[in-house]
Design goal:
Elements (H helix, E strand, L loop, with lengths): L2 E3 L5 H9 L6 H18 L1 H12 L13 H9 L3 H19 L6 E4 L5 E8 L2 E5 L8 H14 L3 E5 L9 H10 L3 E3 L3 H10 L9 E3 L4 H10 L4 E2 L7 E6 L5 H12 L6 E6 L2 H15 L5 H11 E5 L3 H11 L3 E5 L3 H4 L8 E4 L5 H6 L25 E8 L2 H17 L3 H8 L5
Parallel strand pairs: 1-11, 4-5, 4-7, 5-6, 7-8, 9-10, 9-12, 10-11, 12-13
Antiparallel strand pairs: 2-3, 3-14
């Protein structure tokens, strides 16, 4: 991990490389993923079972084996350590309370001439949630996807998660029981995305698909978009930190590594106005690395995709961070709230020295499914609105159509759409 200075002549090229950190080579896997999707569309469960055997090392003998028994979920929940159970309940309650505040409202507005305009907000009928599995399983991701769907009022929730060797993760099963989820399928990767997008004999077609995944999952979501809605196309995890002279380098180092330990493609970027903080953070990173069980992963990430940048002042630091538009942004400065108005692009913003990114992953309340790779410039965190859609409400009285109908008919005539024009004129008082 090296230190970059904005005063260096070579900084521009190095920074451009950082901006391209989230680019995924989807073209490389698109043909593979497209083939998987085509097989699911054509063969449905037959293809699903074949893919499970190929990718997860077990062969479902019947369609029923694809679904996880709810009794297993209850058993896993009841077997939890009581302190862990309490922690999951705390997380559930805080996530739910936060997302309940996001609920959009239907509204109506009546004009003096009898026109009624408005908006009707409705939940989708069925949501498909993809929860990563395999070597690591994330019950927190289940909570973060299920709860906003439930708050939105989605009637049916479908969960797909890979289960290598037909061994579901017990903590994930417990989280399913806690959330009251009953339709959970042992299917992962692009196959799961295709099954939820097009439907099979076991997995019903959904209206929206949410949840993180690897490049195959991300590519599949991109390819089925339009057949269903999706939340976003997320890439490797990342963290950006803005720090001044007041920041604790030991804290900064472990916060950077909290993302680096996810996978080798994760990005960890510190921008500071203090050369001392930069130098000491580098030292602390090395000290922490030697203590991490996932040292090999974190080291590769931090060495190949990590960066420490020394900026001339906080104005320059803010400009650079807005260009990066990180998934997670920590602001570790003397007065972090003073900088908030200048922060334009970030998935989630963590303010102050006692707010590490990890608290947002589990118990803070806001969603941890966030835009990556600079897409925070135009994407928002997963939320209740991802599971809802809006309908416009329009009602004209006789007085209203007579008042503005002529203008409408004129525009329709100008566009050469005579049926449009006449559908207005037949209603006007001559």
């Amino acid at each position: 991990m090296t230190i970059l200075s904005t005063a260096d002549a070579a900084f521009g090229a190095a920074f451009e490389e950082l901006l391209g950190r989230g680019k995924m080579d989807m073209e490389h896997v698109s043909a593979i993923v497209g083939g998987i999707i085509s097989e699911i569309k054509a063969e449905k469960n037959s293809a699903l079972k074949r893919h499970v055997a190929k990718f997860d090392n077990w062969t479902p003998q019947t369609d029923e084996e694809l679904k996880i028994d709810v009794a297993l979920m209850k058993e896993a929940y009841e077997a939890l350590d009581e302190k862990l159970k309490a922690a999951l309940h705390l997380s559930y309650d805080r996530i739910k309370a936060y997302h309940e505040k996001q609920l959009p409202k239907s509204w109506f507005d009546t004009e003096a001439n009898g026109t009624i305009l408005g908006q009707k907000v409705t939940a989708v009928d069925r949501a498909g949630l993809y929860i990563p599995g395999g070597k690591a399983a994330y019950p927190s991701s289940l909570l973060m996807n299920v709860i906003p769907a439930q708050v939105a009022g989605v009637e049916e929730i479908i969960v797909c998660t890979p289960t290598p060797d037909n061994e579901p993760n017990h903590l994930l099963l417990a989280a399913c029981h806690l959330c009251g989820v009953t339709n959970v399928f042992k299917v992962g990767g692009a196959s799961a995305i295709a099954a939820m997008a097009y439907g099979t004999q076991s997995i019903p077609k959904v209206d929206v698909i949410t949840g993180p995944g690897n490049i195959f999952v991300a590519t599949a979501k991109k390819l089925v978009f339009g057949e269903v809605n999706i939340d976003m196309i997320a890439g490797p995890s990342e963290i950006g930190i803005l720090a001044d002279e007041s920041a604790n380098p030991r804290h900064l180092a472990i916060d950077l590594l909290s993302q680096a330990e996810h996978d080798e493609m994760a990005s960890s970027i510190l921008i500071t106005t203090s050369q001392r903080v930069a130098d000491e953070t580098i030292i602390e990173v090395e000290a922490w690395l030697k203590k991490l069980p996932r040292e090999k992963i974190a080291r590769k990430s931090i060495e190949e995709r990590g960066a420490v940048i020394v900026a001339r002042d906080m104005k320059e630091a803010l400009f650079l961070m807005n260009q990066i538009a990180p998934e997670h942004l920590e602001v570790v400065t003397q007065n972090p709230f003073e900088l908030l108005p200048s922060i334009k692009h970030a998935g989630a913003i963590f303010l102050g020295p006692n707010t590490p990114e990890a608290v947002g992953d589990y118990v803070a309340g806001p969603n941890h499914t966030l835009p990556t790779g600079g897409t925070a410039k135009f994407y928002s965190p997963l939320g209740v609105e991802n599971f809802m859609k809006k309908s416009s409400i329009i009602s004209f009285s006789a007085d209203a159509i007579n008042e503005i109908g002529e203008a409408c008919a004129m525009i329709a005539s100008t566009e050469g759409l005579s049926a449009h024009e006449q559908s207005i004129r037949v209603r006007l008082n001559k």
